[in-house]
Write a structure and sequence with these properties.
Length: about 130
């Protein structure tokens, strides 16, 4: 099951993970989160970590910056270090770490270009199923 959600604030992340857990109580919940803006990541770092830890496993993309923020004093790795249930950085050109989860729920969350990560994962799954047929 793949879920795409605009959640980019800790309260929204919490609500999305809680809803997925209620809908799929017997499945592992994987969160793929794209932090949006350096300033928001810094301001809400602990809250992001706390809400993301509600998932069973967490992957992060690099921070999606805004037009007003080109460089920041924080990285996705800084957030990942605060997450106890993962927090590894996942790259658009290598979505293969998600292949470790079978019959689970993968939630892609963020306000930036997180859909391109979801599409890359779906393409990877499609290519694998074509090879196996």
């Amino acid at each position: 099951m793949i879920i795409d959600d605009y959640a980019h604030h800790p309260a929204e992340i919490r609500a999305t993970i809680d809803a997925a857990r209620q809908q799929y109580p017997d499945k592992t919940i994987i969160a793929v989160f794209q932090p949006h803006t350096f300033s928001r990541t810094i301001a809400l770092m602990d809250e992001f970590a706390e809400s993301l830890n509600l998932a069973d496993k967490v992957y992060l993309t690099e921070i999606f910056s805004s037009i007003r923020e080109k460089d920041g004093a924080v990285s996705a790795k800084d957030l990942g270090a605060k997450i106890s249930k993962g927090g590894e950085i996942i790259a658009l050109d290598n979505m293969s770490p998600l292949l470790d989860y079978h019959d689970d729920v993968v939630i892609f969350m963020g306000a930036g270009d997180i859909p391109k990560y979801e599409h890359a994962y779906e393409d990877l799954l499609s290519n694998l199923s074509l090879k196996n047929n």
